[in-house]
Amino acid sequence: MKNERQRKIVEIVSVKNVGTQAELTRELRLAGFHATQATVSRDIRELRLVKELDPSGEYRYIMPADPASDMETLRNIFRECVTNYVCAQNIVVIKTLPGLAPAACIAIDKMDIKDMAGTIAGDDTAFLAMRDNEAAQRLYKEIKEYL
Protein backbone atom coordinates (compact mmCIF):
# COMPACT_ATOMS: atom_id res chain seq x y z
CA MET A 1 0.00 0.00 0.00
CA LYS A 2 2.81 2.42 0.89
CA ASN A 3 4.58 1.91 -2.45
CA GLU A 4 1.33 2.39 -4.36
CA ARG A 5 0.53 5.55 -2.38
CA GLN A 6 4.00 6.95 -2.98
CA ARG A 7 3.77 6.17 -6.70
CA LYS A 8 0.47 8.04 -6.74
CA ILE A 9 2.08 11.01 -4.95
CA VAL A 10 4.80 11.16 -7.61
CA GLU A 11 2.11 11.04 -10.29
CA ILE A 12 0.04 13.76 -8.61
CA VAL A 13 2.93 16.21 -8.18
CA SER A 14 4.01 15.52 -11.76
CA VAL A 15 0.68 16.62 -13.24
CA LYS A 16 -0.81 19.03 -10.71
CA ASN A 17 0.41 22.08 -8.82
CA VAL A 18 0.20 20.87 -5.24
CA GLY A 19 1.73 23.25 -2.73
CA THR A 20 0.66 21.96 0.69
CA GLN A 21 0.39 18.68 2.53
CA ALA A 22 -3.35 19.30 2.93
CA GLU A 23 -3.76 19.63 -0.84
CA LEU A 24 -1.74 16.47 -1.40
CA THR A 25 -3.79 14.59 1.20
CA ARG A 26 -6.98 15.74 -0.53
CA GLU A 27 -5.69 14.63 -3.95
CA LEU A 28 -4.76 11.24 -2.52
CA ARG A 29 -8.25 10.83 -1.07
CA LEU A 30 -9.77 11.68 -4.45
CA ALA A 31 -7.59 8.93 -5.93
CA GLY A 32 -8.81 6.42 -3.33
CA PHE A 33 -5.94 6.58 -0.84
CA HIS A 34 -6.86 7.46 2.73
CA ALA A 35 -3.73 8.80 4.39
CA THR A 36 -3.26 11.12 7.35
CA GLN A 37 -1.28 14.34 7.17
CA ALA A 38 1.48 12.65 9.20
CA THR A 39 1.69 9.81 6.67
CA VAL A 40 1.81 12.27 3.77
CA SER A 41 4.54 14.22 5.59
CA ARG A 42 6.64 11.03 5.92
CA ASP A 43 6.02 10.19 2.27
CA ILE A 44 7.19 13.66 1.21
CA ARG A 45 10.37 13.21 3.23
CA GLU A 46 11.02 9.68 1.93
CA LEU A 47 10.38 10.73 -1.67
CA ARG A 48 12.60 13.78 -1.08
CA LEU A 49 10.03 16.11 -2.59
CA VAL A 50 10.96 19.77 -2.48
CA LYS A 51 8.99 22.93 -3.08
CA GLU A 52 9.65 25.01 -6.17
CA LEU A 53 8.37 28.40 -7.18
CA ASP A 54 6.30 27.97 -10.35
CA PRO A 55 5.90 30.66 -13.04
CA SER A 56 2.66 31.92 -11.44
CA GLY A 57 4.49 32.68 -8.18
CA GLU A 58 3.02 29.75 -6.22
CA TYR A 59 5.06 27.07 -4.48
CA ARG A 60 4.50 23.45 -5.45
CA TYR A 61 6.02 20.07 -4.67
CA ILE A 62 8.36 18.58 -7.26
CA MET A 63 10.63 15.56 -7.67
CA PRO A 64 14.18 16.80 -8.32
CA ALA A 65 15.49 15.26 -11.53
CA ASP A 66 19.15 14.82 -10.64
CA PRO A 67 21.85 16.00 -8.21
CA ALA A 68 22.57 19.10 -10.32
CA SER A 69 18.88 19.93 -10.15
CA ASP A 70 18.97 19.43 -6.38
CA MET A 71 21.74 21.99 -6.06
CA GLU A 72 19.83 24.50 -8.16
CA THR A 73 16.67 23.80 -6.14
CA LEU A 74 18.59 24.51 -2.93
CA ARG A 75 19.84 27.79 -4.34
CA ASN A 76 16.31 28.72 -5.39
CA ILE A 77 14.92 27.84 -1.96
CA PHE A 78 17.50 30.00 -0.28
CA ARG A 79 17.12 32.91 -2.67
CA GLU A 80 13.33 32.85 -2.50
CA CYS A 81 12.52 32.03 1.10
CA VAL A 82 15.40 32.50 3.56
CA THR A 83 14.81 35.64 5.59
CA ASN A 84 17.66 35.36 8.09
CA TYR A 85 20.35 32.98 9.30
CA VAL A 86 22.72 32.90 12.25
CA CYS A 87 25.43 30.67 13.62
CA ALA A 88 25.20 29.73 17.30
CA GLN A 89 28.21 27.61 18.24
CA ASN A 90 27.73 24.29 16.37
CA ILE A 91 24.17 25.10 15.17
CA VAL A 92 23.17 27.13 12.14
CA VAL A 93 19.64 28.53 12.46
CA ILE A 94 17.82 29.47 9.28
CA LYS A 95 14.61 31.52 9.26
CA THR A 96 12.36 31.13 6.20
CA LEU A 97 9.04 32.33 4.95
CA PRO A 98 6.18 30.42 6.63
CA GLY A 99 5.96 26.76 5.64
CA LEU A 100 9.27 26.53 3.81
CA ALA A 101 11.72 25.36 6.48
CA PRO A 102 10.97 21.66 5.73
CA ALA A 103 11.78 22.20 2.05
CA ALA A 104 15.05 23.87 3.00
CA CYS A 105 15.99 20.96 5.29
CA ILE A 106 15.12 18.35 2.67
CA ALA A 107 17.32 20.09 0.14
CA ILE A 108 20.16 20.44 2.65
CA ASP A 109 19.87 16.79 3.72
CA LYS A 110 20.22 15.70 0.09
CA MET A 111 23.52 17.52 -0.19
CA ASP A 112 25.25 15.14 2.26
CA ILE A 113 27.18 18.01 3.81
CA LYS A 114 30.35 16.85 5.54
CA ASP A 115 30.25 17.27 9.33
CA MET A 116 26.46 17.74 9.48
CA ALA A 117 24.90 15.76 12.31
CA GLY A 118 21.32 16.46 11.21
CA THR A 119 18.54 18.93 10.54
CA ILE A 120 15.27 19.77 12.24
CA ALA A 121 12.58 21.87 10.60
CA GLY A 122 9.65 23.69 12.07
CA ASP A 123 7.31 25.83 10.03
CA ASP A 124 9.64 28.76 9.41
CA THR A 125 12.81 27.79 11.29
CA ALA A 126 15.44 25.17 10.47
CA PHE A 127 18.16 24.00 12.86
CA LEU A 128 21.27 22.54 11.26
CA ALA A 129 23.40 20.71 13.82
CA MET A 130 27.06 20.48 12.89
CA ARG A 131 29.69 18.28 14.52
CA ASP A 132 31.67 21.27 15.80
CA ASN A 133 31.79 25.06 15.83
CA GLU A 134 34.24 25.28 12.92
CA ALA A 135 31.98 23.19 10.68
CA ALA A 136 29.05 25.46 11.57
CA GLN A 137 31.09 28.53 10.63
CA ARG A 138 32.01 26.94 7.26
CA LEU A 139 28.36 26.14 6.53
CA TYR A 140 27.32 29.65 7.58
CA LYS A 141 29.77 31.06 5.02
CA GLU A 142 28.44 28.71 2.31
CA ILE A 143 24.88 29.85 3.01
CA LYS A 144 26.04 33.44 2.71
CA GLU A 145 27.43 32.61 -0.75
CA TYR A 146 24.09 31.09 -1.84
CA LEU A 147 22.35 34.32 -0.97
Spell out the blueprint of helices and strands:
Blueprint: H1 2-15, H2 21-30, H3 37-47, E1 50-53, E2 59-62, H4 67-81, E3 82-88, E4 91-96, H5 101-110, E5 116-121, E6 125-130, H6 133-146
Antiparallel strand pairs: 1-2, 3-4, 4-6, 5-6
Helix pairs in contact: 4-5
Key phrases:
2 domains; 6 strands; 147 residues; alpha+beta; Arc Repressor Mutant, subunit A; two-stranded antiparallel ribbon
Q: How would you describe this structure to a colleague?
A:
- It is a single chain.
- The chain has 147 residues and is an alpha+beta fold.
- It folds into two domains: 2-62, Winged helix-like DNA-binding domain superfamily/Winged helix DNA-binding domain (Arc Repressor Mutant, subunit A), CATH 1.10.10.10; 67-146, Gyrase A, domain 2.
- The protein is 50% helix and 22% strand.
- It has helices at residues 2-15, 21-30, 37-47, 67-81, 101-110, 133-146; strands spanning 50-53, 59-62, 82-88, 91-96, 116-121, 125-130.
- The strands form two sheets. Strands 3-4-6-5 form a four-stranded antiparallel β-sheet. It has a two-stranded antiparallel sheet with strand order 1-2.
- Strand 5 (116-121) and strand 6 form a beta hairpin.
- Helix 4 runs antiparallel to helix 5.
- The chain starts with a helix and ends with a helix.
- The model has no long low-confidence stretch (mean pLDDT 87).
